[in-house]
Amino acid sequence: MASAKDLSKILRHSIYLACASLLILEFMFQLVYGLTGRKVNYSLSGATKIDPITGWRGYYLRDEEKDPYNHIRLDQHQLIATPYGSSKKLKPNVFGILMLGNSGAMGMFASSNETSFAGQLELILHSANPDIDLVNASFHSYNSWMEHAELMRYLNTSWLFDDLPDTRMVISYGGVQDLWRLFYVLTQANNSSKYYKAAGLMTDINAIELTLETAQIQFGMPLEGFKLFVSSLQYYILRHSTFLDALKIFKRFIATTLHRKNSDSAPIKPTANNVVNVQCKIHEPGFSRPKDYQISPLDINSIPNKLSMSPRRYKQLRDIAVASVVRNVAASTAALGGAPFVYIYSPTTFSSTSLQTSTLDNHYIPGVGSFATKTIQLVERDFRLALLVELSKMPNVQLIDASSVFYSQNPDDLRPCFVDETHLSDAGSLLLARLISTKLLNVIKSID
């Protein structure tokens, strides 16, 4: 029987052998890749850059063509690329429109920049008025505070660049991220009452905490520094290791081979039962309210019970979240000096079906948790109605409530219009852009 000393020796030599084998394999694949001209195919999907002004903006090591979820290209300013550009030197009378918003405005899940909501909106507006240049400064997870911060950056910076037109109009494609912040206030704020978090109503808390942790490393926190070093080393190896890249290719080949063996070799022939109707339909006549769309006092009274709090406490927290959005919009409109601010409350599947046909499944809200779909629908309706009432009192704000433009009592009718609960398909984006463009062109005519 081997002694403890012998086992320790075997273990030590096994580690040495494993490390040496990995180094030899890496050297061999480096040689093969060098001779064949192949490069390591590695990019991060959605590794966002921390931004001290808005929380985050842009990506690290991203290839939009290989990103399975987000094909949107960014321009040299890390703004969302749009179909048209302009030059203030060549065309001084450009009508600049600044688009703000979250991943829906950004075009997440769109097949291209041109087929996103913002891209198709600019194509329509530009065909009607060639002087229009829409600049898309939206980014995923932006709430109204982050939108306001991005607006301030643009106003302070655009004069430095010939391709960033002066702002004649601002469009805020909002709603859902401020709704998610309300859910944070309802469920998390009391459990994490740190002053710097601002109750979750300003910059995203994850961005705040990462910035603080990174800044504290220089002041005697070697363990945190070591964690960052390990993370950086991990990504360096993933980006440059030819052996890991070859292993990934091999795994993909095995998975593809097994899938072919397990699948039926005969192609599926289209029949009346398996052909999907991909037509996306607008609720007629567009922005009207269906009869079963309103939320009743009985439904409103049921919300506190679903969230395990008193009606008074729920109303207090809802009003805090609404007031936060109103302050952000008021600050943005004040900075524009009279230029129109168009607030679009974006459509979601939660706002596009009746409460009576609500599904029984749950939806996960990032950073908060899972909630029943009907609970989200109830809170969304109540929050939206309270918010739009307050925004309607602001003279420089043009309201477009697009929450019900795809409304249907049958949730299956929404599938061609939405990719998921909060993001439109290309077809849905085109129909919404057509509806919105008519209203925007009327606003632009009233300015000129």
Structural class: alpha/beta
Q: Mind telling me the C-alpha Rg? A: 26 Å
| CATH superfamily annotation of the largest domain | SGNH hydrolase
Strand order of the largest sheet: 4-3-5-6-9
Q: Kindly provide the name of the CATH class of the largest domain.
A: Alpha Beta
What is the number of beta strands?
Answer: 9
- Report helical residue fraction: 40-55%
Shape: globular
CATH architecture heading of the largest domain: 3-Layer(aba) Sandwich
The portion of residues forming beta strands comes to 5-15%
Write the layout of secondary structure elements.
Layout (H helix, E strand, L loop, with lengths): L3 H33 L11 E4 L3 E5 L35 E7 L1 H4 L10 H12 L3 E5 L7 H14 L9 E8 L1 H12 L17 H12 L5 H19 L1 H21 L34 H10 L4 H25 L5 E5 L16 E4 L3 E4 H19 L5 E5 L24 H22 L1
Parallel strand pairs: 3-4, 3-5, 5-6, 6-9
Antiparallel strand pairs: 1-2, 7-8
Helix pairs in contact: 1-8, 3-12, 4-10, 5-10, 9-11, 10-11
Describe this structure in words.
- 31% of the residues are buried.
- The protein is globular.
- It has 2 domains: 48-217 and 278-447, 3-Layer(aba) Sandwich (Rossmann fold); 220-257.
- It has helices at residues 4-36, 103-106, 117-128, 144-157, 176-187, 205-216, 222-240, 242-262, 297-306, 311-335, 373-391, 426-447, and strands spanning 48-51, 55-59, 95-101, 132-136, 167-174, 341-345, 362-365, 369-372, 397-401.
- With 448 residues, it is of the alpha/beta class.
- The longest helix has 33 residues, at 4-36.
- The chain has 12 helices and 9 strands.
- It has a 5-stranded parallel sheet with strand order 4-3-5-6-9, sandwiched between helices.
- A hairpin with a 3-residue loop joins strand 1 (48-51) and strand 2 (55-59).
- Residues 263-277 have low confidence and may be disordered.
